[in-house]
């Protein structure tokens, strides 16, 4: 497939602020609208070279992700880490960069970075160094940020993520993105721009909070891939507990580097896109920027090596003010911090205070099951489909809910999954509730499913009961069934009578069925259901009708 | 002291390919004849570090600082790992993750010239130094 061939472009990403070699491309006639060729995911059609005479574009997307470390105190000081507190109340003298203060490294932050590095299959550098990155901004009181530019704590890892290649969500494909490095660095404070009074208000509560910067190689080619990769990273971080990674609270920030080029040609000029506040917006921003660059180049324009901001309201990227083009950060070693030394089982020093020692192997042994492992276990244990396992892990607490229901019901797990994903989850989504806030507990749902399993109610009736349970009035499923008289008709004779009555009434349909149009049988079943107010077992009704009409139909598996 | 730090950085910027160890097999080696620091570099420095060389004396001081630092070339550093901190053999102390500081808003804001409801007040956004042509500096004449 053209898409596959076009994507076989690896190559190292050129870091830092460099003017990439722009490729205006061969003499381009403007692409007719609607035929923009993007060699990517199966969803988007790639125009193979030669068909229309116009070369396809290969988009290249690289991500820089900053994840706020989940810790009690900051990276180099003892002030508290907390979202939303009175301005400048969580600031120590060091965070405010008052003279005479020194950085003191927080052990928990190092452990978080090591855990994350191990989970992303990186090599952990047993010796890493701290550097200063200089630039002026009101929310950076020291005039520099302490980071790890020369030798970061972890390098050369990979992250696997999955995508649905069709809109039915039934076929998933696994992709990998390489992780260039993970480094520890300080967060800056927050600036509130007050344009009316021409001033900036600065809150340093966030200044000095520990960050893990995860740098991904440009192995992705569209918004969907970027979003899926970030989502998986988010799940991993949350599973490890190294970061809560909530984008809305700024605990996970993503900057996208986007460029396009023709296959076989050098990388194009890249732009950096910032101000992306959710995973959905990430996909939109990346796709918009790819299209913008393609259009620009096809119209004979050039791409500037610039920083752009994503405007979520307009759904487009705009050049960012306040950025001074090529920045020179004058990196220098942080003179106040010696190298960070990590140990493993072999190199553990004998006579050292254990509190001062971080053992990589010890951390490795205690890593929890990563999302990919959890999913495999769910599929193996319960016989559900891989896409089900993705859906379960995608919602906080849902996997646990599902397992609890399975434990408490006799219904097969394969059948339970439908009820959890299709019925319960859609209710939760409709009312914007989390699993924890669900008015229907796993116990109640299991109870309901037991009734269904015992064939005391029909599937339709079960849905009615669920709707009633959703009101959260404290009734049990059995109580609701009795109240609304939803029990399945057990009296065979009564059922036969109703079937016969329907047959007698619907002469046209009966003729059609006898003539061979067996699908009309469903209409009769529906009528019987109506007569019985949904209290008849559709399979049984079908059998009775068939017997009465003396038609045989192929056995269809009962859902 | 600031001039020395700047000088060190200017040397690295001017002669990017030379590290300490890549200096060839020479022993004592006189530094190359003084190269004047160009106006572009001076302008770039003023931009980055927000220093003001003010007059030719300031530039001369920088020039001398560079020459002073160039004496380092007299040392043969073949096969020697660059040292970037005298602390390199020390243990990096690891602190426990406890909250021990903060909650001193009043004290911190004491030094602020302007404040608004417990926020520090800064000029709007980032105001870069105007371009060489647009500012009033003696560098223009050089």
From TrEMBL, chain A:
The keyword Cell membrane does not apply. Its EC number is 6.3.5.-. Keywords: ATP-binding, Ligase, Mitochondrion, Nucleotide-binding, Protein biosynthesis. GO terms for molecular function: ATP binding; glutaminyl-tRNA synthase (glutamine-hydrolyzing) activity. It catalyses: L-glutamyl-tRNA(Gln) + L-glutamine + ATP + H2O = L-glutaminyl-tRNA(Gln) + L-glutamate + ADP + phosphate + H(+); L-aspartyl-tRNA(Asn) + L-glutamine + ATP + H2O = L-asparaginyl-tRNA(Asn) + L-glutamate + ADP + phosphate + 2 H(+). Residues 400-549 form the Asn/Gln amidotransferase domain. InterPro entries: Asn/Gln-tRNA_amidoTrfase_suB/E, Asn/Gln-tRNA_Trfase_suB/E_cat, Asn/Gln_amidotransferase, Asn/Gln_tRNA_amidoTrase-B-like, GatB, GatB_Yqey_C_2, Gln_synth/guanido_kin_cat_dom. It is found in: Mitochondrion. Transmembrane segments: none annotated. One of its GO terms (cellular component) is glutamyl-tRNA(Gln) amidotransferase complex. GO terms for biological process: glutaminyl-tRNAGln biosynthesis via transamidation; mitochondrial translation. The keyword Repeat does not apply. SUPFAM superfamilies: GatB/YqeY motif, Glutamine synthetase/guanido kinase. SMART domains: GatB_Yqey (SM00845). Belongs to the GatB/GatE family. GatB subfamily. Subunit of the heterotrimeric GatCAB amidotransferase (AdT) complex, composed of A (QRSL1), B (GATB) and C (GATC) subunits. PANTHER family: GLUTAMYL-TRNA GLN AMIDOTRANSFERASE SUBUNIT B MITOCHONDRIAL AND PROKARYOTIC PET112-RELATED, GLUTAMYL-TRNA(GLN) AMIDOTRANSFERASE SUBUNIT B, MITOCHONDRIAL. Allows the formation of correctly charged Gln-tRNA(Gln) through the transamidation of misacylated Glu-tRNA(Gln) in the mitochondria. The reaction takes place in the presence of glutamine and ATP through an activated gamma-phospho-Glu-tRNA(Gln). This is Glutamyl-tRNA(Gln) amidotransferase subunit B, mitochondrial. It comes from Pipra filicauda.
TrEMBL record, chain B:
SUPFAM superfamilies: Glu-tRNAGln amidotransferase C subunit (SSF141000). Its main location: mitochondrion. Keywords: ATP-binding, Ligase, Mitochondrion, Nucleotide-binding, Protein biosynthesis. GO terms for molecular function: ATP binding; glutaminyl-tRNA synthase (glutamine-hydrolyzing) activity. It catalyses: L-glutamyl-tRNA(Gln) + L-glutamine + ATP + H2O = L-glutaminyl-tRNA(Gln) + L-glutamate + ADP + phosphate + H(+). InterPro entries: Asp/Glu-ADT_sf_sub_c, GatC. GO terms for biological process: glutaminyl-tRNAGln biosynthesis via transamidation; mitochondrial translation; regulation of translational fidelity. Its EC number is 6.3.5.-. It is found in: Mitochondrion. The keyword Ribosomal protein does not apply. One of its GO terms (cellular component) is glutamyl-tRNA(Gln) amidotransferase complex. The keyword Nucleotide-binding applies. Coiled coil: none annotated. Belongs to the GatC family. NCBIfam families: gatC (TIGR00135). Subunit of the heterotrimeric GatCAB amidotransferase (AdT) complex, composed of A (QRSL1), B (GATB) and C (GATC) subunits. Allows the formation of correctly charged Gln-tRNA(Gln) through the transamidation of misacylated Glu-tRNA(Gln) in the mitochondria. The reaction takes place in the presence of glutamine and ATP through an activated gamma-phospho-Glu-tRNA(Gln). PANTHER family: GLUTAMYL-TRNA(GLN) AMIDOTRANSFERASE SUBUNIT C, MITOCHONDRIAL (PTHR15004). This is Glutamyl-tRNA(Gln) amidotransferase subunit C, mitochondrial. The lineage of its organism: Eukaryota, Metazoa, Chordata, Craniata, Vertebrata. The gene is GATC.
């Amino acid at each position: 497939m053209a898409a596959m061939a076009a994507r076989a472009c690896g190559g190292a990403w050129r870091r830092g602020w460099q003017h990439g070699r722009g490729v205006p491309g061969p003499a381009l006639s403007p692409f007719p609208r609607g035929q923009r060729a993007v060699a990517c995911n199966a969803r988007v059609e790639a125009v193979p070279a030669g068909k229309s005479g116009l070369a396809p574009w290969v988009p290249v997307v690289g991500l820089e992700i900053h994840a706020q470390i989940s810790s009690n105190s900051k990276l180099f000081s003892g002030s508290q880490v907390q979202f939303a507190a009175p301005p400048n109340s969580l600031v120590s003298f060091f965070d405010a960069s008052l003279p005479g203060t020194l950085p003191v490294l927080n052990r928990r932050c190092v452990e978080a970075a090591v855990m994350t590095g191990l989970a992303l299959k990186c090599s952990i550098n047993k010796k890493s160094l701290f550097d200063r990155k200089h630039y002026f901004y009101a929310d950076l009181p020291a005039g520099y940020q302490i980071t790890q530019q020369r030798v970061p704590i972890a390098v050369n890892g990979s992250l696997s993520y999955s995508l649905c290649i069709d809109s039915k969500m039934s076929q998933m494909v696994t992709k990998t993105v390489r992780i260039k490095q993970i480094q520890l660095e300080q967060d800056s404070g927050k600036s509130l721009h007050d344009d009316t009074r021409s001033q900036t208000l600065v809150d340093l509560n966030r200044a000095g909070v520990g960050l893990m910067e995860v740098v991904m190689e440009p192995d992705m080619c569209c918004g969907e891939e970027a979003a899926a990769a970030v989502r998986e990273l988010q799940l991993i971080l949350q599973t490890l507990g190294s970061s809560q990674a909530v984008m809305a609270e700024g605990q996970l920030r993503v900057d996208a580097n986007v460029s396009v080029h023709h296959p076989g040609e050098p990388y194009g000029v890249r732009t950096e896109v910032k101000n992306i506040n959710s995973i959905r917006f990430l996909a939109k921003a990346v796709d918009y920027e790819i299209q913008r660059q393609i259009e620009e180049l096809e119209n004979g324009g050039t791409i500037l090596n610039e920083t752009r901001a994503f405007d979520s309201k307009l759904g487009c990227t705009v050049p960012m003010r306040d950025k001074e083009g090529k920045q020179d950060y004058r990196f220098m070693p942080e003179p106040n911090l010696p190298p960070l030394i990590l140990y493993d089982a072999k190199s553990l020093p004998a006579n050292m205070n254990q509190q001062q020692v971080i053992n990589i192997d010890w951390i490795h042994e205690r890593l929890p099951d990563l999302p990919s492992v959890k999913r495999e276990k769910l599929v193996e244990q319960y016989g559900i489909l891989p896409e089900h396992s993705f859906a379960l892990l995608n919602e906080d607490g849902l996997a646990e809910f599902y397992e609890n229901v399975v434990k408490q019901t006799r219904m097969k797990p394969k059948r339970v999954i439908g009820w959890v994903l299709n019925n319960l989850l859609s209710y939760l989504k409709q009312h914007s509730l989390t699993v924890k806030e669900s008015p229907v507990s796993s116990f109640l749902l299991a109870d309901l499913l037991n009734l269904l399993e015992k064939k005391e109610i029909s599937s339709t009736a079960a849905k009615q009961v669920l709707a009633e349970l959703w009101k959260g009035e404290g009734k049990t499923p059995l109580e609701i069934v009795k109240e609304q008289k939803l029990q399945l008709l057990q009296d065979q004779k009564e059922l036969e009578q109703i079937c016969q009555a329907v047959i007698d009434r619907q002469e046209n349909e009966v003729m059609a069925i006898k003539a061979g149009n067996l699908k009309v049988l469903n209409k009769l079943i529906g009528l019987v259901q109506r007569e019985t107010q949904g209290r008849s077992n559709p399979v049984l009704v079908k059998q009775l009708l068939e017997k009465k009409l003396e038609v045989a139909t192929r056995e269809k598996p009962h859902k | 002291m600031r001039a020395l730090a700047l000088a060190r950085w200017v040397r690295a910027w001017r002669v990017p390919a030379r590290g300490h160890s890549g200096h060839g097999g020479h022993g004592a080696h006189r530094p190359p004849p003084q190269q004047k620091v160009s106006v572009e570099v001076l302008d770039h420095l003023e931009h980055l570090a927000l220093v003001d060389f003010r007059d030719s004396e300031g530039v001369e001081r920088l020039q001398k600082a560079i020459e002073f630092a160039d004496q380092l070339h007299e040392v043969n550093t073949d096969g020697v790992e660059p040292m970037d901190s005298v602390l390199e053999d020390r243990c990096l102390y690891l602190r426990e993750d406890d909250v021990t500081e903060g909650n001193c808003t009043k004290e911190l804001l004491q030094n602020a010239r302007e404040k608004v409801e417990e926020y520090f007040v800064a000029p709007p956004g980032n105001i870069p130094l105007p371009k060489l042509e647009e500012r009033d500096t003696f560098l223009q004449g050089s």
